[in-house]
Specification:
The structure is a homodimer. With about 400 residues, the first copy, chain A, is an alpha/beta fold. Helix content of chain A is about 50%, strand content about 15%. The longest helix of chain A has 23 residues, at about 210-235.
Chain lengths: ~400, ~400
């Protein structure tokens, strides 16, 4: 294990109806004027937004609103939010929604108290200060409710980039599994895929002797594999949704990623897809991951075999461990198909002729130096080959 | 899963030499005068205490010292510490040691800012305020470096009781696995047993459909089973110690115990043993747990079988699952013996004639109502039977 700092001071409130106490939690963290940030119609139609506003009003907390966050959230709305918060002297940003809304809220919260262009943070500058953030989560997926990260799509060129900094950890997050009961099986499956991807990105490491985090990651993956078919069959299954919701937070608050090199190339590879085709991030990851694994398993066959045996229940082929590694990848692909995820370009509406451009942008766009990835360093040519495995 | 709040705001710094920056971490949390609290000679002899003091001096932070914490820490020293802190106007308590020292520091930190007798907290009053606490951990075991709990032995009757409250979560904890390289195999094995016990106490639940926390607990147990023989063979094995150290924190900060009923009867049963015989808490737990499991497996055979199959690699006996459950308990006992732990009364120096008294005190002592335990409610007669299984 490598040295690390782990600091996850978010106050997590888990359970039914907790969103109705949003005002109380906002008050706990000293807010006087709140920006309520949200996406489209569902939080309005479901009455969730009204419940949250009523809760703030009951506590006598002022607020302004900014809706309109899209999946793969855009830089334009972040600038709008920053201007609004400054004009209205907002001192707390409350995200009501999923990862896109939370990430947009985080970018606003950081941008408000930064003198420069908030995009600086998405080009590598570490975020050290931001307004406090609260979240009311409506889909288990991104893990942003417990993470110090945010991902935004720059509309000036349509590419996604991430930013990080401890200041982005939410002050509180309300996790009510019942709020996710209205999602479609497809949306839930996308979320599950995103959660599993966060675990894989941590699992594929070059750091040796990390049994404790290996086992935690495997445990969370096994829980997802158990719960996914239950909830796809019945999206109303509160207990399955509850298990998935906690797994989604644990998968990305980094308690199982500490002390080990991680690999985020698959997320980068996917970001090109969702930036161009505006596909769901989870659906993109379902296509990317088996391809990334197939291409990279040569770098550590035993690690892939370990995953196959411990998580997918494959038999170890001691004579030829790569057969086991391959069986694990096949099991992942079959699992993703079973929950309704696409596993090739056609399923995303992606086009072969864009491969060259995506590989180039992933490696060289916006200041990058020509390679991505920690488990295996991938050049543009490698990425072309990986994208081609998705055809 | 049941509703819950999870709030673990401790700043964990993990890695070599981090204790030399203790002054910096103390400053981060705004201390002006520190009580350095520690146990016996080892932190002095090893030079650890001197390094910590030098670090505080370098930062210009004043401090006073109180050593002398014993294993199974006593109420008397807590009163001394409270008086000292009040007299010296201490505003931060820094524990340098293991669980006993940290728990003693927590009791002092809570007692200083409480008008009544600190023992009130150990009779069920929830702790809502305390001086901030820092820890520099020297043994992986109690998990107190990340938990909101403390256990103290009342010298007026020699019985152990626990207290809890979010105010007891340390502000920071320095986890340097290298500090545990000087421990004996026996001390390390006691720590491993304590960590595993914290996982078992959470695992044996009456809450249904808690796959995500089940799998996390199982994963941490599997990691301990992997690392234990490596470190018993070579107590200098930094990587094994590092994995155990992070597992010890994760086992008890409750991220894998949320949303499920827990059972702390085994800890209560053990506390009577270590209060009377002053045995190591981990050694006591090694004796208690197989007995508690054997007596209580009837309440949920399938849960015991699940543990046996998933953690101990037992074959499932589908015709008679209790055979699998028993095989799992046998495997645990064998594992504990293999790392040098006692598994009966003789190994602890405990005496059959004290059983009646211990069972009575565990059930009725200091305000208790006659039963303990959450997985199975245990009366005095049950406890007598369980203690007898340890003979």
């Amino acid at each position: 294990m490598e040295n690390f700092v782990f600091y996850s001071p978010t106050y997590f409130v888990f359970g039914k109806d907790e969103e109705s106490k949003a005002g109380k939690y906002v008050r706990r963290f000293g807010a006087s004027k709140v920006l309520i940030h949200y996406g489209g119609g569902s939080v309005v139609r479901s009455g969730l937004l009204a419940r949250v506003k009523a809760s703030l009003e009951n506590e006598g907390i002022e607020f302004v609103e900014l809706g309109g966050v899209k999946p793969n959230p855009r830089s334009g709305l972040v600038y709008t939010g920053i201007d609004l918060c400054r004009k209205e002297k907002v001192d707390f940003v409350l995200a009501v929604g999923g990862g896109s809304t939370i990430d947009s809220a985080k970018a606003i919260a950081a941008g408000v108290v930064y003198e420069g262009d908030f995009w600086d943070y998405f080009q590598g500058k570490v975020i050290t200060k931001a307004l406090p953030i609260g979240t009311i989560l409506t889909i288990s997926a991104a893990g942003s409710e417990g993470s110090p990260d945010a991902v935004i799509t720059n509309e000036n060129g349509m590419y996604k980039r991430g930013a990080t900094g401890e200041a982005l950890r939410p002050a509180f997050s309300v996790l009510n599994p019942a709020l996710t009961q209205t999602l479609s099986p497809y949306q839930i499956a996308c979320g599950i895929t995103d959660i599993m991807a966060h675990l894989f990105e941590r699992y594929f490491t070059t750091t040796q002797e990390v049994e404790v985090t290996d086992r935690m990651i495997e445990g969370l993956l096994l829980a997802m594999i158990h719960e996914a078919p239950r909830v796809i069959k019945d999206t109303n299954n509160y207990q399955a949704l509850a298990n998935i919701m906690w797994a989604g937070m644990m998968a990305h608050n980094n308690s199982c990623g500490v002390g080990r090199a991680q690999d985020w190339a698959s997320h980068d590879i996917e970001h090109e897809l969702s930036a161009i085709y505006d596909c769901a991030h989870g659906a993109g990851l379902a296509v990317v991951f088996p391809a990334w694994m197939t291409y990279n398993m040569k770098h550590d066959i035993n690690r892939f075999a370990q995953l196959a045996v411990r998580v997918w229940g494959c038999q170890m082929d001691f004579a030829q461990p790569e057969n086991t590694a391959k069986a694990g990848i096949a099991a992942l692909k079959q699992f993703l198909q079973s929950i309704g995820m696409p596993t090739d370009f056609a399923g995303l509406g992606a086009k072969e002729e864009d491969i060259e451009k995506m590989a180039h942008t992933a490696c060289y766009g916006d200041g990058r130096k020509g390679t991505i990835g920690g488990f295996a360093s991938l050049s543009k040519n490698d990425l072309v080959a990986i994208y081609r495995l998705m055809l």
